[in-house]
Specification:
The chain is an alpha+beta fold. Helices cover 22% and strands 28% of the residues. It contains seven helices and 18 strands. A hairpin with a 2-residue loop joins strand 12 and strand 13. The longest helix has 20 residues. The two termini are 35 Å apart.
Length: 355
């Protein structure tokens, strides 16, 4: 530990471990020294090391060093990243509610789960207490002491946090699966907008939903987020694990809503006639020789809402209700008209999410 100097008065404890804020004298930065309260629990440190070594995600805490007892050669502790940003334990108290901020948090948690599950890692103890941000606002998950990397791992004891535990964890010899993390994600979504006292009764039962039916988080959000997001969160808390979405679906849907009203659609004819659709101008009617097309921007897609005459999208007849591809050629006139047809190119922007 000569490399690491304790910073007085900065110790933390929780669960099975203790944390000490220390200074890395080689790299001149603050980091955390983590060790278990009882040496008999050091297997959790080993488990954490193994899981973090496999995880490749900007939303997972980094492990920097191992502290080995020079006499016994046994692991004493680990040096991990010190997150100086905010936590989310009191997020539900903040007013006014910011739907974009809420989705950013959910997106980053879901991205972390996607990265973990893609590496066959189940966190097993996902909760707001194990989530914090860096100074630049990047959310990270930590505390991998209970995580599992074995697809056939069975547990006889639920060692996680009770309210975040999926119903199937209460069964004997429960198989640890990614769906358990998805359930915990749903609880995190609730806890970001409500204290436990405000949860629906079914989530507070042991096991969950053993007596009462689940009631939608929409009762709390009250129209503050899109219904698709409400349904997504509700599905995470399905009693049947097979009905829960996977992490990839969480990322995809939340990402889509974070980009709501951020696209632009450009229509160009011979580099001279230009029409642009965006959140400030949501509809356009293009009428040229042989046909007419009406396109509306919904905030997510560019939808064909009207067609007259002979109009083709990439050589297929334009159909009302279809969305335009991100890049396509709109042709006015049947193919046998040859060079007398009119052509308009369409290109949709690809907005990026910056965190």
């Amino acid at each position: 530990m000569k490399r690491y100097t304790p910073i007085k008065g900065r110790t933390f404890s929780g669960g099975f471990g203790n944390l000490q804020l220390v200074r890395d004298t080689y790299l001149d930065r603050e980091v955390l020294y983590k060790k278990m309260s009882q040496p008999k629990d050091n297997d959790q440190l080993v488990n954490e090391i193994q899981s973090l070594s496999k995880a490749r995600s900007r939303h997972v805490i980094e492990i920097y060093d191992l502290i080995i007892n020079p006499d016994s050669g046994l692991l004493e502790g680990i040096i991990i990243e010190y997150l100086k940003g905010r936590d989310y334990l009191s997020y539900h108290k903040e007013t006014p509610f910011n739907s974009y901020s809420y989705l950013i948090i959910l997106y980053q948690i879901s991205q972390a789960l996607f990265d973990l599950h893609s590496s066959n890692i189940v966190h097993r103890d996902l909760k707001l207490e194990n989530i914090k941000s860096t100074e630049t606002g990047v959310l990270k998950i930590f505390d991998f002491g209970l995580s599992s990397t074995d697809e056939d791992y069975l547990t006889k004891l639920n060692r996680g946090t009770v309210i975040y535990a999926a119903p199937e964890l209460y069964k004997d010899n429960a198989k640890i699966t990614p769906e358990m993390d998805i359930y915990a994600f749903g609880i995190c979504a609730w806890n970001l907008v409500s204290s436990f006292k405000g949860f629906c009764t079914a989530l507070l039962e042991r096991p969950p939903m053993s007596y009462s039916a689940y009631t939608s988080i929409g009762n709390i959000l009250g129209g503050k987020v899109n219904n698709e997001i409400v349904s997504l969160i509700d599905s995470c808390l399905s009693y049947d694990p097979s009905l829960r979405p996977n992490a990839e679906r969480l990322v995809s849907i939340i990402y889509k809503h974070l980009l709501y009203n951020k696209h632009k659609g450009l229509f160009v004819e011979k580099s001279s006639s230009i029409y642009e659709l965006s959140y400030s101008k949501t509809g356009v009617r293009i009428k040229l020789s042989h046909g007419e097309i009406v396109v509306n921007y919904t905030g997510f897609d560019f939808i064909i809402s009207g067609v007259l005459g002979d109009v083709y999208i990439n050589n297929s007849p334009a159909q009302v209700g279809n969305s335009l591809p991100n890049a396509c050629l709109i042709t006015f006139g049947k193919p046998d008209l040859g060079s007398s047809r009119r052509f308009v190119t369409f290109l949709s922007s690809h907005p990026e999410l910056v965190i």
